[in-house]
Amino acid sequence: MPGVTGMRLRTTSPRPASELSPAWCVALDDNVSALAVDPQGKLAVVGTMSGTALALRLDGSIVRELPEHPLGSSAAAWSNDGEHFATGGQDGRTRLYSRAACADPTVPPTASIERKGWVASLCWSPRADHLAAIVGKTVLVIAVDGSLVLEQAAHASTLTGVAWSVDGSRVGVSCYGGVTWYEVADPAAPPKVFAWKGSLLSLDVAPNGKFVAGGCQDAAVHVWRLWSGDDFQMSGYSAKVEHVAWDHTGRFMAVGNVGEVTVWDYSGRGPQGTRPTQLDGHDRHVSALAFQHRGGLLASGGADGLVMVWDPPKRSAPLHSVELSEGVASAAWGANDQFLLVGTELGQVLRFDLPT
C-alpha cells in the first residue's frame, strides 16, 4: 500500500461547548495512573503512582483497598463480562481477581505473577477468558482460573503495547521493530511478524478486525491490514504519538498529539488521500483518548487540564468541556456511555455525567 505521508485538515465552524460539572470527586494520594470501569456499570478499579490500588463504587465511595503495587500502579483492566479484573504495577507483578474480591477483602487474587520489568499494559481477550500482560520484554497470557497459558520473552526491546485479534485466537505485542502475533491455543507455533524499522509506543486493533494501528516515536501512526500485513503510515504530527483510539464500528480512528486530535475515516478504500478531521482545543499534549463503547462520541483529556467530548466528524468543536486545575492522567467511559471517569495528575478521580 502507498503511504499517507502528509496531513490535510478538514474543519467546520465552531459552536460553543456546554460546560461539564463533576457529580463527585475523590481525592487520592498521587497521579491516577490506572483507571478501568466495570462493564456491568457498578464499579471502577483505580491505581496511583504511589502504589495504591482500590475498588470504587460509581457513586464515589470506596468498596475495598486492594493490595498495593510498590513503586506504583501502572495498569488496570476489567474483562468484557465484568466477572474478572486485574491490576499491574511497576513492581512487575500482575494480579488477577474475581469480581467477588471487590466486595470481600478475604477473597485473594486468583493469580499473582511477577516478572522482571514493570507492567506496561493489561488487555482482556474478547471472549473474557484470558488476560494478556506485558512486563518488560515479556508477554504473559493468563486464564481466568489463574493458570499461565503463554509466556514469551524473546523480544529485542521492551514491549509497549498489547492487543487481541477480534476472535481472541491471537495476541499481539509491539516494540521496536514491529508487531509480533502469537497463537494462544498453540504457543509453540511460529509467530506472525509485522516487521517495521521503528519504535512503536502503542497498539490498537480496529473492532471490525480489519486493521491494527500503532503510535510511533517518530511522530507518526503506522497501520497494518489484518492479516495480509500490508502497511501504510500517517505522518506529519508534531511529536511522538502515544494515544490512538478506534470507534466501536472500526470506521474512525482518533489520534492524540500535542495540542490536537485528528480523526481519520477508514470507510470505503480507507484514509489514503483523504483529509482527517482536526479537533482543536488542547494547548498541551493529549494524555487520554477514548470513544464511547456503543456511541460515536470521543473523549479527550490533556496535560492542560482540559476534558472535552467531541462528535466527530460532524463537528470539530467540542460538545462538552471542562477545565480542571491540574493535568488529566486517565479517562474512561461508563458502561452506559452517559458519564466519564477522569483521573488527574495530582490524584483526583472525578465523575462527569453528560447532559441529557
Description of the structure:
This protein is mostly beta strands and 356 residues long. It has a domain at 17-145: Methylamine Dehydrogenase, Chain H, CATH 2.130.10. It is built from 1 helix and 31 strands. The strands form 7 sheets. It has an 8-stranded mixed β-sheet, with no helix packed on it. A hairpin with a 5-residue loop joins strand 29 (328-333) and strand 30 (339-344). It is globular and about 50 Å long.
Form type: globular
Compute the number of strand runs: 31
Average residue-wise pLDDT: 94
Largest beta sheet, briefly?
A: 8 strands, mixed
Helix/strand-derived category reads: mainly beta
Low-confidence stretches: 1-15
CATH level-four homologous superfamily name of the domain at 17-145: YVTN repeat-like/Quinoprotein amine dehydrogenase
Sequence of strands across the biggest β-sheet? 1-28-27-26-25-24-23-22
Concise account of the structure shown:
Helices cover 1% and strands 51% of the residues. The protein is mostly beta strands and 356 residues long. The chain has a domain at 17-145: Methylamine Dehydrogenase, Chain H, CATH 2.130.10.
How is the secondary structure organized here?
Elements: E1 18-19, E2 22-27, E3 32-37, E4 43-48, E5 53-57, E6 62-66, E7 73-78, E8 84-89, E9 93-98, H1 100-103, E10 111-114, E11 119-124, E12 130-135, E13 138-143, E14 148-152, E15 161-164, E16 170-183, E17 192-199, E18 204-205, E19 211-215, E20 220-225, E21 231-235, E22 243-246, E23 252-256, E24 258-265, E25 277-291, E26 298-302, E27 306-310, E28 320-323, E29 328-333, E30 339-344, E31 348-353
Parallel strand pairs: 1-28
Antiparallel strand pairs: 2-31, 3-4, 4-5, 5-6, 7-8, 8-9, 9-10, 11-12, 12-13, 13-14, 15-16, 16-17, 18-19, 19-20, 20-21, 22-23, 23-24, 24-25, 25-26, 26-27, 27-28, 29-30, 30-31
